[in-house]
Amino acid sequence: MGFILMPEWLNKVIDIREIVKMDVDELITLLNKELSDEWLAYYQYWIGAKVVKGPMKDAVIAELTLHATEELGHAELISTRIIQLGGTPVLSPEEWLKLTNCGYDAPVDQYVEEILNQNIKGEQCAIKVYSELLEITRVGDPVTYNIILQILSQEVEHEEDLTALKEDPELMLERRR
Fold first, then answer.
1. Residue 31's closest CA among 83, 108, 104, 109?
2. Minimal CB count within 10 Å: which of 30, 58, 106, 177?
């Protein structure tokens, strides 16, 4: 039976905090704020899909439902990264509204255009916040940077999808005039 000599560094457990070249506690705080945003965005899309009324309602429901699923995926990515960094994801929904960057707009007016406007506003805020977080992590934490880049690209796509949906009924109404 032979033995394989392994380099000494393979026997050492790497502390992720040693790899990240920025204040990890500050990063965890920023990620928890984003996690709160994602949970609120998920609920805003989900509940909007349940209550929306008006023209092209079925297309809007399908899009909102898809976006809700993708926002939940973002929450999964962020919470996993928080844990990898040695942090604890936000544990209580009560904290979401305290930590959120983008807030929550309850769909009191359930008309299609208003629901779309609320979600476009939320996506624009998410794009701004994720763009800032991208800059913060660019050099200091390439793993978080790649996660944020992936999420940001979906947020941009969401805004484009919602804007296109909003324009469709407007174009139909203009043609009738």
1. 83
2. 177
123's tokens? 């996506």
Beta-bridge mates of residue 84: none
Cβ contacts of 127-134, under 8 Å, gap ≥ 24: 127/152, 127/155, 127/156, 127/159, 129/33, 129/34, 129/37, 129/101, 129/102, 130/34, 130/155, 133/30, 133/34
In CATH, what class is 20-176?
A: mainly alpha
Structure tokens at 27: 């990063």
List the structure tokens of 167. Answer: 């324009």
Q: Which amino acid is at 47?
A: I
Q: Provide the CA 112 distance to its chain's centre, in angstroms.
A: 22
pLDDT digits (tens, 9 = 90+) for 119-166: 999 999 999 999 999 999 999 999 999 999 999 999 999 999 999 999
Contacts from 162-169 at CB under 8 Å and sequence distance 24+? 162/63, 162/67, 162/116, 162/119, 162/120, 162/123, 163/120, 165/56, 165/59, 165/60, 165/63, 165/116, 166/113, 166/116, 166/117, 166/120, 168/56, 168/59, 169/54, 169/55, 169/56, 169/112, 169/113
- Residue 161 and residue 64: Cα distance in Å, rounded? 10
